[in-house]
Amino acid sequence: MRYKRIMCTEKSTPLSEVVALRRNFFGGLWHAAFLAFGMALTQPTTVIPAFVAQLTGSTIWVGGLVTVLTVAGALPQLFVARLVEPRARKMPLLMVAIHLRVVCWGLLAALILSVGASRPLLLAWSLMGFLGMFYACGGLGGVPYTDIVGKIIPSNRRGAFFGGKEALAGPASVSAALIAGVILAKVGYPGNYALLFGLAAAALLIASVGFWIIREPPRTGTGRSVRPWAEYRAQLIETARRMRKLVGVELLTGFSLMALPFYVVYALQVLAAPPAAVGWFVLVQVVGGVLSNLLWARLVDRHGSRKMITVCAVLSSLTPLLAVIMGSLGWPGLMPVFFLSGVVQSGRKVGFATAVLELAPSLERPTYAALNSVLVLPVALLPLVAGVLLHVCSYAVVFVAAAVFIGAGACLARRWAQEQPQG
Q1: Angle at 371 between CA 349 and CA 342, to 5 degrees
Q2: Report field, pTM of the whole predicted structure over 0.70
Q3: Residues 6+ apart with CB under 8 A from 110
């Protein structure tokens, strides 16, 4: 039935618009597939924490790096949004951000190969610097990306786009996870991580072809120049007021980040998992994300982003509790935990990206996307807090505390979903 509705819509639309929609969909899917391949090779919740743990042996370093990456990805957005919002086309800025990310991965891979394992602290600080730049460029590109998607994808197809692009990227993600497992097991340290980062750079370069394919239409109503800060500040205050419930849900459910990077550290340091197990964790996490994407897309399109976020929050609250229970079975017992963490990560991407687009007026999408990232920045401190707490508390205490806050977020999300207009 849904397929017929889509076909009917296309038949009533000029042929040129139908061709443009299909072209843009293909470009988005191409980018998603190769981006997923690259990110699966360097999972920020498995591969990078494992690398940092091997370099430093410190949970504070693991938590601190995750915090730096989150802040680096969010802070540039608000300053960029003010400059980008009046521009007719945002694609040039997005392409610059993408290629800077490629350079970051490539330079990091070269540095690891040249330094080797003899200077772990130098590698750790270099890793923080290059990854900080990588995620800052991601934040720089995230502002125009949100606006471009809002322009090229009709509102009744966004759930299908966000869910479908993730689902179709699944084979690439699974392939990358399998390759990562082989590299981590067979290639010597730290060359194995250098190879992963080098392959990720190549994947992101190929992914950029997808945006060369996309034809971004010019924004309508572009006569407005860059707003003075005083005027823009008033816009930010009003935008924050409209987004307060969404941000509240994101902050509470964001406590999943308090536990997420430490599942792999828990397995390595407490459950004596071998280094090759990281590859299995990556694979299971990727499979969880892939298999859940069609579910998330269907929930968004049929019931709206708020109800979908509620379901995702409930699953998220159960994940750290499952880690406490299944840890008694040894490191293989954490496989369902990594599977669910992949499901939850995928759900958060689909749900919150769609929710921001639903709330944002078409001419203010960059501001909404950027302000949303800045308002949820307190979540960035949670991994660092967890890293410090793990010096005085057990993993079980940290995981249960995270579950309590996420559960509160699920309750808030349910009340927010009940306010959503029907139809």
Answers
A1: 15
A2: no
A3: 194, 198
Amino acid at 171: P
Is 230 within the bounds of a domain? no
> In this structure, is residue 22 part of a structural domain?
yes
Report the alpha-carbon distance of residue 401 to residue 396 in Å, rounded: 9
CATH number of domain containing 47: 1.20.1250.20
- The conformation of residue 361, written as its DSSP 8-state character, comes to -
Q: How many CB atoms lie within 10 A of CB 178?
A: 16
Residue 328 exposed, middle or buried by CB count within 10 Å (0-12, 13-18, 19+)? exposed
Given a contact cutoff of 8 angstroms between Cβ atoms, the answer to whether 51 and 127 are in contact is yes
Convert the pLDDT of each residue in 115-171 to its tens digit: 877 777 788 888 888 888 887 777 777 667 767 777 777 666 666 676 666 666 667
Residue 317 backbone phi and psi in degrees, to 5: -70, -25
Q: How far apart are CA 384 and CA 377, in angstroms?
A: 13
Instruction: Classify 113 as helix, strand or coil.
Output: helix
Residue 161 in contact with residue 25, Cβ under 8 Å? Answer: yes
Q: How far apart are CA 111 and CA 100, in angstroms?
A: 17
DSSP state of 419: T
Q: Are 412 and 248 in contact (CB under 8 A)?
A: yes
Q: DSSP 3-state assignment of 394? A: coil
Query: What percentage of the chain has pLDDT greater than the value 90?
Result: 13
- 4 within some domain: no
Question: Residue 340 pLDDT more than 60?
Answer: yes
Confidence band (pLDDT; 50, 70, 90) for 336?
very high
Domain count, the chain: 1
Q: Helix 158-168 crosses helix 335-359 at what angle (to 10 degrees)?
A: 150
Residue 5 domain flag: no
CB 35 within 8 A of CB 169: yes
Residue 345 identity (one-letter amino acid): Q
Do the beta carbons of residue 161 and residue 173 sit within 8 Å?
A: no
What would the mean pLDDT of 354-374 be, rounded to a whole number?
77
| Domain limits for position 62 | 18-214+235-418
Please write the tens of the pLDDT for every residue from 199-208.
999 998 998 8
